[in-house]
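Worked example 2:
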Amino acid sequence: MMTPQQEHQTHRNRSLQDTGNGTLKDGHDDDDDDDVVQVHSRWNNIHLSLVCVLLGVSLIMMLDGCRSSSESWVLLGSAGILIWDWTSVCVVLLFTVLQVALYYLPVGQVTEGKMGCDGKHLKYNLNGLHACLLTVVLMLVLWFSGVLRAGSVTVRIFSLVSAGMAVSLIFSLTLFLCPIRTPSSAPVTYDNTAKPLLRFVLGQSMDPRLGSIDIKHFVMVRIGFIGWAMMDVNYLLTAVEMKSWSLSLLLVVVFQLIYILDFLIDEGSVLTTKEFTEEPIGFIMILGEFIWIPFFSSLPVYFLLQRPNHIHFLSAVLICVLFAAGFLIYYLSNEQKDGFRRNPNDPAYARLKTIRSPAGSSLLVSGWFGWVRHPNYAGDILMMFAWCLPCGFSSGLPYFPALQCLHLLRQRANEIEESCLKKHRDAWREYCRRVPYKLLPYVY
């Protein structure tokens, strides 16, 4: 698992918000009949403290670095931009309360997810797409009516990050000091001394719930992804107010909104991901969703707002082709993988070559998975870099999210391959011989 700075996109293969540094295994508490999850962690108090502090500080410094180089550094106190104000706290709280209310919308699908420790499947409201669209509509109504000025939100970007940190801290302390005990939620135990800081930061419960709201699902989808969409829309409206919008900024916003909407349409995919089914929820996860996903993921848009970069129309066309190629590779490879898993005897897959595994399943060695071993990850990477390219090459800052995603997906690919080698043994070795590249043909 990885540090919270590596926390990023949640999707069928994007949901990589690993928030610890260990492995999880099912266990049992001899003093209780409840199932528990045992966490093997190598974190110590110094590491935990540094990560919790540096996550927000590093994000503010990156946002500050996006501003014009002629402006003075905000952390020296001479830029006139507030690091804290109560208006920003109110904005973060109002957004959170709004998402709580929209969680109860009587629309969307109610689906079953993982098995709770009471032997019943947990149920989730999958109406994130409706919640996002209603939030955007509300924002646009307030903006067109003159109640909201997008620029007044953007100028508070540093204090919004600080407010997100404060709300995350209060939220996490509440979960820690007043743990929610439900029959379906497994408590977490640690294999070391289980210091209070460790349990606070990494979490002490797997699936805490408030009423019908699953807190992990809520922060991952409603706070993280919808918050990211709201920041993108706000930056675009700010550019309109400043009459400084450009084709490059518009491209990045459109690409990212397509990415977010694709996730929300397939919201149920998050329920089977590793961090959702195996990770407890603690301060690191909550902090990452309140500040890292909304503000770090939208860093390229903020960069273009501060440093406009005008690109040629033909360059824009090529970037659109790159994004479309990445999206199609991602989507079609996932469809092929999921369809083959559901029904390997489907006539649509009759021409695909396979290798029989000792585990009783078959490995695809043609189609998308005969190109590279993780084509869905390759598509993700292409999309990420496509929305960074409009920023130009005057700074490396807007490329940080894409580089982080590349590192994260490469690390996840290695984890998957280790698992597949244990499961499929010689069949997996033969697959690797016939398909030698993990992510990029003839490169890696």
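Confidence is low (pLDDT under 50) at residues 1-34. The longest strand covers residues 22-28.
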